[in-house]
Automatic annotation (TrEMBL):
The lineage of its organism: Archaea, Methanobacteriati, Methanobacteriota, Stenosarchaea group, Halobacteria. This is Cu2+-exporting ATPase. Residues 1-48, 225-251 are annotated as: Disordered. Residues 185-285 form the P-type ATPase A domain. The keyword Secreted does not apply. It is found in: Cell membrane. PROSITE patterns: ATPASE_E1_E2 (PS00154). Its main location: membrane. It comes from the Archaea. Belongs to the cation transport ATPase (P-type) (TC 3.A.3) family. Type IB subfamily.
Amino acid sequence: MSNHPDHEHSETEHAHTGEAEHAHDAHNHGGNTHEGGHGDHGDHTDHSGHEEMFRRRFWVSLVLSVPVIFFSEFIQDIFGYTAPTFPGSVWITPVLSVIIFAYGGVPFLSMARTELKNREPGMMMLISLAISVAFIYSIASLFLEGTTPFFWELVTLIDIMLLGHWVEMRSVRAASGALDELAKLMPDTAERVTESGDTEEVPVSELGEDDVVLVRPGASVPADGEVVEGESSVDESMITGESRSVGKEPGSEVVAGTVNQDGSLRIKITKTGEETTLAGIMRLVDEAQKSKSRTQLLADKAAGWLFYVALGVAAITAVAWIVATGYNITVLERVVTVLVIACPHALGLAVPLVVAINTSTAAKNGMLIRDRIAMEESRNLDTVMFDKTGTLTKGEQGVVGVETAGDWSEERAFEVAAGVEGDSEHMIARAIRDAAEERGVQRASVSNFENFRGLGVRATVDGETVHIGGPNLIEKFDIERSDGIAAFAEEAGSNAETVIYLVHDESEVVAAFALADVIREESRQAIEALHAMDIEVAMLTGDSEDVARAVSEELGIDQYFAEVLPDEKDTKVEALQSEGKLVAMVGDGVNDAPALTRADVGIAIGSGTDVAIESGDIILVDNNPLDVVRLIKLSKASYRKMQENLVWATGYNVFALPLAAGVLAPIGILLSPAIGAVFMSLSTIIVAINARRLRSADISVPDIGA
């Protein structure tokens, strides 16, 4: 089972541009940038601050842009209206534009410094180049005859870029809390046993080796140790990922963070602090997150090339027009038009719009995207590795078989067993009651109920005594099982199923129930659908070889790894990756956290522990393995939209830049800066419309076996 940490990729991986990294540098939100594909949870980055900053600047700039656009002469000419005039009205547009440039545009200039310093031109330098040229030209046009300012284009460009970054930060935002969630499993204090035999409450940090602590029912074990007194069962699911509680008695080992259930235990501490199993898992999570490779997005690469192309075309344009006409205002206008046309309106929104729609579409289908790089990578997966318990299975005991003896029918056996187990909260009792309910069997009325630790329970039904318990029960009464029940128990044991016996009158085994972790109904369909997509399916489990083989054969899994210890799970993922495979890990427990972060795509089951969900790039809210298939289909559809948008956004520049440079001037076609800006805005609208078409993408999972 798993928990979930929030993976933040390297900031340079974050968006169409990597501007998140620059935003961190420019605004001192700091921390070290994460090297990890899933993010370094050791150095958490707070994206909520950037999201709020871009949101605030967008709305302020948008409000100030309205009068700029309304009073723009070009806009008035286009729409055929005349704005009212009054003393000072002529300064509304330039003054507000300067404010918008300083408030909404300067952050991009700050972020561009990082690209310039790293000599890696990208979206930030391209945006900064465009808004700076637009700003300087528009200010100059106030004093130069024969020029037309286009402050409206400057402010709308800034607004659109701020909107794109707000959308981006909103989709990227995540709280990298894996290690914090792991730490929460540890209690703050412990009851240390004194030399006099009394107990004293002390901080866990003060515990040392050989100290003895008292762990009461319902309390967490404060450190790794060995039971020296008492008997109980301990819930180790958050560490082992397996659903059955583990019985503990003197000599048994216990692990920090696990929960004692029904009996008091005195435990001698053997490991504390960084030496505990839980601390080891925390280190694995941290190391796995740091081991990711960096990924650059297509839009950033496109922006980098476009930056050089824009400068090159602008230089060629200047030289050509100076040679043709001499140095005059026309040359300046041509150069400005080229640089404004290169302004990445559409390119800046090509990816964020798709990401935003992708995120909302995924959420509506029970998938929470915490790391968009992983979402995009999902389209290339060739191997999906599932944790068994709680993922492919329900993580709870269920009756998978029943055998009766003598004249007892299955209905009678369930009627009596469900009655005897009527008030117990033990997982086996719940499984028997649920199985009886599914069969429509009414519970028998019982009396004189008694619980015998280690043996089971006893009650009176219709004046006769019945017992329910495991092998220890029939050994105590020295009861011989019928051949049918003995064979049934042997087969169940070979499949690592738990066998519970119903004993009548302390002398006859009248029924046997086989219990096992129940396979989810959706698991088979999900695996068939993945196979249809040419994706291999692997399974990890801490269970025995017999259990792993049985589940694997039933579901048609390609390969499985059994008896895997918590600190081995991520190495299994790494082994598959070393074969050149792109691996997704699906899990729902603390012990899955290192594997989730090690995988190329970490998918956490939503009902799992908090650490698994914090470790996952993508969270499946509904615990449905079919959502893994939907995720991959949505990833493919989203990437197609990104490609289409990028092709259009960059293709537009390939077409528009020569026009802006004036290659068709000999035949009377000359693109003014203002008209070029209009065309650029139209390209943005087309990109937005195409992104919205993602909402209608078909991500349903066909029932291949039907």
